[in-house]
Amino acid sequence: MTITITAFAQSPDGGKGLARDSRVRWALAEVDQPYDVRLLSFKVMKQPAHLALHPFGQIPTYEEGDLALFETGAIVFHIAERHAGLLPDDANARARAITWMFAALNTVEPAILELANAKLLESDKPWSKQRLPLVEDRVRDRLQHLSARLGSADWLDGAFSAGDLMMVSVLLRLKPSGILDEYPNLAAYVARGEARPAYKRAFDAQRAVYTGKPATG
Ligand SMILES: N[C@@H](CCC(=O)N[C@@H](CS)C(=O)NCC(=O)O)C(=O)O
User: Fold this and answer.
1) Among 55, 120, 164, 167, whose Cα sits 20 to 30 Å from the Cα of 86?
2) Report field, pTM of the whole predicted structure over 0.85
3) Is 71 close to ligand 1, i.e. is its CB under 6 Å away?
4) Per residue in 142-158, pLDDT tens?
């Protein structure tokens, strides 16, 4: 059955791989599933046809036959459940990998998004300079704990899993800030994720939207 995802026709990051379709593309590449991409303008994302797929008018969405999903956590989880390679077979290890997906999305990503918003949307506010260090320190707090848990391991819990895919995806947004480099094991962890052939395929596929090549995986 054909899988179709949605992505920005014009991503604010210009193809740096930070739009959240990238993590879905990465999951599909890891399990070797082809997919089509429907590119949407910001205007179309807020219109009824897309709102029927995504109640908040965002990307990405995922369609497969009569199944339509939104939220990258749910989408990557669905892909990982349906195809071997992203979740361990052992039930407890599987539950732990799923836990890391939630940790990435619920515990680490909010602090990182707050920092991105502080820089992008609040830099002209009179209180911005005072607030920024507080927001950065909240990110550091999360990274410090994550760094301590990862230690010298390659991945968060044994073999690479959907938990790592989600955590690396979330951490990637920090690269330009320099904060990630304060935690060399986390910087190396992200680099390991980016070095995976499936990540590279996904990155190139989202980048192709800007270089004029076909936007399919
Ligand atoms: N929690 C959602 C967040 C989705 C999200 O924020 N999508 C962004 C693109 S990365 C978007 O569509 N932004 C445009 C908007 O909100 O209008 C997920 O993980 O899927």
Assistant:
1) 55
2) yes
3) yes
4) 999 999 999 999 999 99
- Count of other CB atoms within 10 angstroms of residue 132: 15
Q: Can you read off the two tokens belonging to residue 101?
A: 């997906």
The neighbouring-strand residues paired with 70 are 61
Q: Which residues share a beta bridge with 68?
A: 63
High-pLDDT (> 70) share of the chain, % = 98
Q: Is 58 in the pocket of ligand 1 (CB under 6 A)?
A: yes
Measured from the CB, is residue 11 less than 6 Å from ligand 1? no
**Rounded Cα distance, 30 and 78, in Å:** 13
Identify the H or E element spanning 170: helix 162-172
Task: For ligand 1, say whether the CB of 19 is within 6 Å of any of its atoms.
Answer: yes
Ligand 1 geometric centre to CA of 39 (Å)? 14
Q: Is 109 in the pocket of ligand 1 (CB under 6 A)?
A: no
Q: Which residue has the tokens 């192709």?
A: 208
Do 217 and 205 touch, CB atoms closer than 8 A? yes
How many contiguous H segments (helices) and E segments (strands) does the chain have? Answer: 10, 4
pLDDT at 214 over 60: no
Residue 61 has pLDDT above 90, yes or no: yes
Query: Which residue minimizes the CA distance to atom 3 of ligand 1?
Result: 71
CA-closest candidate to residue 19, choices 217, 161, 205: 205
